[in-house]
Design a protein that fits this description.
Blueprint: E1 2-8, H1 12-25, E2 29-35, H2 44-56, E3 60-62, H3 73-80, H4 90-105, E4 111-113, H5 121-130, H6 138-141, H7 146-155, H8 162-165, H9 182-191, H10 193-206, E5 211-213, E6 216-218
Helix pairs in contact: 1-7, 3-4, 9-10
């Protein structure tokens, strides 16, 4: 049997991608579902992972970078003395991309599946060009969009991670350093003040100006609590194994 590895990120799209892969290829291929655990994600992500595991009927495996067994973004930032750059964030590169590549060295496989939806064909195409071409676009082939994924999850009786219900645009780490919007950071300040303070303190120590206000980068502790940027996009950005590495006004 050839092996297919589905990279599950605790988001709706990758959950549905795993289900579709098992439905389509489970009888003819060995299908493994793997997750990159991240310490700074909300604890309810673990609950969702367990629910998805039962839904799929397979054990979800874990891949961690050997240098960072705690899979902590904060440890990566402290070690690398950097939180985010115009080229991306070290936590994404190390704890997701490099962790995946380390796992792949000792786990031979033939194909991979990522949660690219029908409204993300450009991301799929970019991944094929920049990384590898053995990606099975299971969601794209069936024309499944992100909105469809939320519906499929709901119809299956699953409850999305609670961070979605808190108004966050994704199920990534709370206080994601790839975000530059004052709208996002003031939302973190309101919903998770302890995380906002922690990010503010560490970013000061490192010298990272994480938020952009009127085109100018400022420290989080300089951010006006009333400052606003673009509205949060809401459930349309999933920081998975294929997280965008290019920094921008993501949310």
């Amino acid at each position: 049997m050839k092996t297919i590895v589905v990279w599950f990120s605790c988001g709706a799209a990758s959950a549905v991608a795993a289900k579709k892969t098992l439905d389509k290829y489970g009888a003819t291929h060995r299908v493994r579902v793997v997750n990159n655990p991240i310490e700074e994600e909300d604890a309810d992500n673990v609950r969702f992972l367990k629910d998805v595991e039962k839904w799929l009927g397979v054990e979800i495996e874990f891949a961690r970078h050997p240098k960072y067994p705690n899979a902590s973004c904060k440890e990566v930032w402290a070690d690398r003395k950097i939180m985010s750059t115009p080229q991306g964030a070290p936590c994404t590169m190390i704890l997701k991309k490099w962790a995946r590549q380390e796992w792949e060295k000792s786990n031979p496989h033939d194909y991979i599946v990522l949660g690219f939806t029908a409204d993300e064909i450009h991301r799929h195409e970019r991944f094929v060009v920049t990384e590898r071409d053995n990606v099975l676009p299971v969601l794209i082939e069936e024309g499944i969009t992100k909105a469809d994924c939320y519906r499929i999850i709901s119809d299956a009786g699953l409850v999305l991670p609670q961070v979605y219900l808190m108004g966050y645009p994704n199920a990534n780490c709370i206080g994601c350093v790839k975000a530059t919007s004052p709208t996002y950071w003031n939302h973190v300040r309101k919903m998770h003040p302890e995380v906002f303070e922690d990010r503010a303190n560490q970013s000061r120590e490192i010298g990272a100006k994480l938020v952009r206000v009127k085109g100018k980068r400022v420290f989080l502790d300089e951010l006006d609590p009333k400052a606003k940027g673009a509205p949060l996009k809401g459930m349309d950005f999933e920081c998975g194994i294929f997280c965008e590495e290019k920094q921008g006004e993501l949310f």
